[in-house]
Design a protein that fits this description.
- This is Glutathione-dependent formaldehyde dehydrogenase.
- Keywords: Metal-binding, Oxidoreductase, Zinc.
- Its cofactor is Zn(2+).
- It is a single chain.
- Helix 3 packs across helix 4, helix 3 packs across helix 10 and helix 6 packs parallel to helix 8.
- The protein folds into two domains: about 210 residues, Alpha-Beta Complex (Quinone Oxidoreductase, Chain A, domain 1); about 160 residues, NAD(P)-binding Rossmann-like Domain (Rossmann fold), CATH 3.40.50.
- The strands form four sheets. Strands 3, 4, 5, 8, 9, 16 and 17 form a seven-stranded mixed beta sheet that branches. Strands 12-11-10-13-14-15 form a six-stranded parallel beta sheet, sandwiched between helices.
- The relative contact order is 0.16.
- The two termini are about 20 Å apart.
- Helix content is about 25%, strand content about 25%.
- The protein is globular.
- The chain is built from eleven helices and 17 strands.
- By secondary structure, the chain is α/β, with parallel strands linked by helices.
Length: about 375
């Protein structure tokens, strides 16, 4: 089969790999109909995630048609077109029982933090991902959800990660009616977090980034304010000024480990890797939120420490909430939001690229070329 093949930092290509096999009675084999390149994939592409091995196939955002099922699978049948959450979750461990599917203890039992994730290095379980024609899906009775007949496949594929992560970012913020919400990052997740903030009753939504075309996009898509931090003397000072020197009620870090804006953070966190990424956006979030406010983190950081102002967290009485999105828990309400027209995920898709051209697709997304917001990869065997 054709699949994306990681050959080292900044080197990916479409290659032929063995067809996946049923390895456990609870497995399914899914023929991919849509997959995405995620901003988190760029951290792998740039060589910033530990134990990303040559030969791995990335891709934790995909949908597809069930081709085979193991003998213990009861909830799926061959021919079902399914949303596959990026979380690989057993559904039975102590964390899955709490609906913390991103922290499943069985799917990544060697880790003390994150659960299994498709296509996201051996630190997240070593599972090959969906930037391929076919994927082995473990625990097939747990994660995969049949796509409603009336739902467009482009909406469905964004329910695997982008929409749930943006929604959970807003949810973790504990947004109350009238709150001022600041989202750092105007990538796909930041765009969706800004959009979803209104669903929780936000009175004002502000997005901070430095890529002009993304700022223009989020301003139109999420009906929010959008500012380029390079045009501001200091983004923290700006947010304080625009909130009567109180600070935002909620700040969301939707950037993670490759944030721009601080030479010190970039050198120590990205160039020299002395900390787990550049925590610039997290700094700004902590210092911009009001006393007693909430900082919600969905941006990806590595497993080691970061240079952050923990004293300000303590002295301001800030609540920090963070996690990988629990996709399975959120799917029913997000499907309903799409059905009712409150969310239109497919509108953020700007590029549709054949899987055969995956190398070019990564370059375009990574280099922010051609006003790229979100890229969909179409395998040659997709069929739809």
């Amino acid at each position: 089969m054709l699949a994306m093949n990681y050959r080292g930092p900044y080197r990916v290509r479409a290659d032929h790999k063995p067809y996946p096999e049923i390895l456990h009675p609870e497995d399914a084999i899914v023929r991919v109909t849509r997959s995405c390149i995620c901003g988190s994939d760029l951290h792998l592409y740039h060589g910033l995630v530990p134990d990303t091995r040559v030969g791995m196939t990335f891709g934790h955002e995909f949908i597809g048609i069930v081709e085979e099922i193991g003998p213990s699978v009861q909830n799926l049948k061959v021919g079902d077109h399914v949303i596959v959450p990026f979380n690989v979750a057993c559904g039975k461990c102590v964390f899955c029982e709490q609906q913390m599917y991103g922290n499943c203890h069985e799917s990544n039992s060697q880790a003390t933090a994150v659960g299994g994730i498709f296509g996201y290095s051996h630190t997240a379980g070593g599972y090959d991902g969906g930037q391929a024609e076919y994927v082995r899906v473990p625990y097939a009775d747990v994660g995969p959800t049949v796509i409603p007949a009336e739902m467009h496949p482009d909406d469905a594929v964004l329910l695997t990660d982008v929409v749930p992560t943006g929604y959970q970012a807003a949810e973790m913020g504990g947004i109350k009616p009238g709150d001022t919400v600041v989202v750092f990052g105007a990538g796909p997740v930041g765009i969706m977090a800004a959009k979803c903030a209104w669903l929780f009753g936000a009175g004002r939504v502000i997005v901070i980034d430095h890529i002009e075309y993304r700022l223009e996009f989020v301003k139109n898509y999420a009906q929010c304010e959008a500012y380029n931090f390079r045009s501001l003397e200091d983004p923290v000072l700006f947010i304080k000024k625009t909130t009567d020197w109180i600070g935002a009620d909620v700040c969301i870090d939707a950037v993670g480990c490759e944030a721009a804006g601080s030479a010190l953070q970039t050198i120590t966190g990205v160039k020299l890797m002395l900390q787990a990424g550049a925590a610039t956006a997290l700094h700004w979030a902590i210092n911009s939120v009001k006393k007693g406010g909430i900082v919600s983190i969905v941006g990806v950081y590595g497993p080691t420490g970061n240079l952050i102002p923990i004293g300000n967290v303590v002295n301001k009485g800030i609540t920090i909430r963070a996690n990988q999105a629990s996709v399975k828990r959120l799917l029913p309400r997000l499907i309903e939001h799409i059905k009712e027209g409150r969310l239109d995920p497919k509108a953020i898709i700007t590029h549709r690229v054949p899987l055969e051209e995956v190398g070019d697709a990564y370059h375009i997304f990574s280099a922010k070329l051609d006003n790229c917001i979100k890229t969909i990869l179409i395998p040659p065997s997709a069929g739809i």
